Structure formats: structure tokens, C-alpha cells
């Protein structure tokens, strides 16, 4: 299993420079769709429901203060298995065309983030976790619907 730094390195290698916020959302969607397609997590690090959408705190601590990221020296993109690469490639192909704000807005309309932030104000800080169970359940339902972009 890859770790979140390996996934970040792979995304940047495949998609090129992007904002830290966009990288966070692509990492989130990579985890979500890997849970659906491979029925196991892509990485073990937790994802929190922050005001601007899902965030992996381990990544945030490394890119804090940076806007544009061009590479991820803390990760090794070659550690991803072919199945893991396939998941991330699918996510980058489907979601990579969207801006960081569009991806943030999308996560705000989806149940895993909404449920994790239940009772919080729109800009209220939170360290609440988005559970992998909630992600797998929600995105599995999306995959089985006719609205799925990735399937």
C-alpha cells in the first residue's frame, strides 16, 4: 500500500503543477474511488472535514504556506502498484480539469463531507474525520447510478 505522500507525488508527476488545495481534493477523490474499485484504502492517513473541503493533515503540514506545488519530494510515485496507479489516473482524468474551487464546491455537495461537518457553521474549524466507510458507501452508490462520471 502506498502512503499519502506517494499518492501526492504520483498526482503531481501525472498532472503537473497545481495548487495545494487542488492536490488535497485529488488525493481525497483518489482515496474515495480506490475504496470503491479495490475495496481497500489507497493510504492509511486520515482525512478531515475542513471548511474548504476534505484535507489530509499530513499533507497540509508539508505544504502549508505554499500555493503552487510542482513536485512532492516527500513521496515516491513509483511505490504505487499498477492498480493504485489506475485509480489515480482515473481520478486525474475525471477531476483534473476542474479548478481547486470547483473541486471544493463539489465535495461540499457530497455526503461524506456533509455528514462529518454536521452541526458546524460553514467557516467553523473542524478536525472531524471523514470515515472511509462513509466514503465507500457514498461513492459506491454514485458509481452504481447513471450520474457516475468515473465508471
From TrEMBL:
Pfam families: SocA_Panacea (PF13274). Residues 23-113 form the Antitoxin SocA-like Panacea domain. This is Uncharacterized phage-associated protein. It comes from Actinokineospora iranica.
Amino acid at each position: 500500500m502506498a502512503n499519502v505522500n506517494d499518492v501526492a507525488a504520483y498526482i503531481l508527476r501525472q498532472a503537473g503543477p497545481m495548487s495545494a488545495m487542488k492536490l488535497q481534493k485529488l488525493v481525497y477523490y483518489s482515496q474515495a474511488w480506490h475504496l470503491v474499485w479495490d475495496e481497500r484504502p489507497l493510504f492509511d492517513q486520515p482525512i478531515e472535514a475542513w471548511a474548504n473541503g476534505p484535507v489530509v493533515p499530513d499533507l497540509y503540514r508539508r505544504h502549508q504556506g505554499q500555493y503552487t506545488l510542482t513536485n512532492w519530494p516527500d513521496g515516491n510515485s513509483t511505490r504505487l502498484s499498477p492498480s493504485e496507479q489506475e485509480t489515480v489516473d482515473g481520478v486525474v482524468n475525471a477531476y483534473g480539469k476542474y479548478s481547486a474551487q470547483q473541486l471544493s464546491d463539489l465535495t461540499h455537495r457530497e455526503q461524506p463531507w456533509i455528514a462529518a461537518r454536521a452541526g458546524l457553521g460553514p467557516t467553523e474549524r473542524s478536525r472531524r474525520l471523514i470515515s472511509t466507510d462513509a466514503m465507500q458507501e457514498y461513492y459506491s452508490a454514485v458509481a452504481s447510478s447513471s450520474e457516475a462520471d468515473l465508471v
